[in-house]
Amino acid sequence: MTERKYKADDYKSDFRPTWCPGCGNFAQWRAIRAALAELEIPPENVVLASGIGCSSHMPNFLNVYGMQTVHGRGIPVATGVRLANPKLTVLVYGGDGDIYGIGGNHFLHACRRNVDIITIVSNNFIYGLTTGQASPTSPVGTLTKTTPRGSIENPLNPVSLAISAGATFVARGFSGDAKHLQYIFKEAIQHRGFAFVDVFSPCITFNKNQTFDFFRARIYKIEETEHDKEDFHAALDLANQRFVRDHLPIGIFYQIENKTTYEERDFALNQGYIPAHEELGLSDEQIEIITKEFY
C-alpha cells in the first residue's frame, strides 16, 4: 500500500485554535486538513480567505496561504486570487453573519458566476464573536441581545438560495460528524465550479437552541436516500425540508458538471494568460515601497 504524500498535520500551523472548547469549528478544521491531505494538494498551492468572526480566524490555524479580509469580503478576495492564478486551490471560510449577512451580495454573485472556488460557512445561527446577536439564519422567535422579545425576521435558507442562484455544487454538513464533513469537503474541492458547503456548527457559548443534541435528533444523510443530486427541482425540494418539518438533510443536495466556469469564459485565461506569472515591471525599490504599506 502506497503511503500518502501528505498527512493532515502537514496543514496545521504553529498557532493553536482560540475557539471555545467544544466549538463546532474544530471539526471543520480537522476535516479541511484531512480532505486536503487525502487529495494530496501541496500546502503551498492552497489559499484560504476569510472575513471577520470566530470562524474567520481559520487562516491562522492552517499551514496554507491565508488572509483575513474585511468583514464579509472573503469571497471577492478569493475570486481575485483565483483569477490571478487559476492553478491554485482557493477556499473561503466564514460564519453565517459574515457570508450571508455582511457579505450576502458577494455570495449571491459568486453563485451565479460559477467561480471555481470553495466556500464553507460555519453556520451557528448567531453572531458569536460579538457575543450573541441575531444572524440571517436565526429562526423566528430566537432570543438574542438584539432581539430580546424574539426575532421577527424570517431566516435565510442558504442552501435553496445557492441552488436558485446558480451554484453548481451545494451541500450541507454537520460539525458533529467530522468524517462526513471530510467527505463533503473532498467532493467540494474536486468540483469544477462554485462549490458551497453550509455547515451546522453549534455555538456552545451563545446559542443554547441549535445545539449538538438538537441536530443529532433531526439530521439524516442524503447519501442514504434515493435523491438525484443532478435534479434541480428535487434539490430545491430537499433544501426546503428545513422549513416544513423536523428533518434536516446533510450531504450533497445538488451537483452538476456541465456548466462552464467563470474562468473558462474569461478571454485572457482562455488564452493561457496567468496574471500571477507575469513580470510586474517594477524595481526592487518600488516593490519595497508598496509592500511596506502592508507591514
Structural features:
single chain, 295 residues, alpha/beta, Rossmann fold, eight-stranded mixed β-sheet, 11 helices, 8 strands, globular
Q: What's the short story on this structure?
A:
It is built from 11 helices and 8 strands. With 295 residues, it is an alpha/beta fold. Its cofactor is thiamine diphosphate; Mg(2+); [4Fe-4S] cluster.
Would you give an account of this structure?
The protein has one domain: Rossmann fold (3-Layer(aba) Sandwich), CATH 3.40.50. 32% of the residues lie in helices and 15% in strands. The chain is built from eleven helices and eight strands. It has an eight-stranded mixed beta sheet, sandwiched between helices. Strand 5, helix 6 and strand 6 form a beta-alpha-beta unit. Helix 3 packs across helix 4, helix 4 packs across helix 5 and helix 5 runs antiparallel to helix 8.
Shape: globular
The CATH architecture: 3-Layer(aba) Sandwich
Rg, nearest Å: 19 Å
> CATH superfamily assignment?
Thiamin diphosphate (ThDP)-binding fold, Pyr/PP domains
Helix content: 25-40%
Q: Mind summarizing the main beta sheet?
A: 8 strands, mixed
Indicate the proportion of strand residues: 15-25%
Number of helices: 11
Spell the H/E element sequence.
Answer: HEEHEHHEHEHEHEHEHHH
* N-to-C CA distance: 47 Å
What's the pLDDT, averaged over the residues?
A: 94
Domains (count)? 1
Assembly annotation:
single chain
| CATH domain topology | Rossmann fold
Strands of the widest sheet, in order across it, are: 2-1-3-4-6-5-8-7
GO molecular function: iron-sulfur cluster binding; metal ion binding; oxidoreductase activity, acting on the aldehyde or oxo group of donors, iron-sulfur protein as acceptor; thiamine pyrophosphate binding
Cofactor: thiamine diphosphate; Mg(2+); [4Fe-4S] cluster
Protein name: 2-oxoacid:ferredoxin oxidoreductase subunit beta
Pfam families: PFO_beta_C (PF12367), TPP_enzyme_C (PF02775)
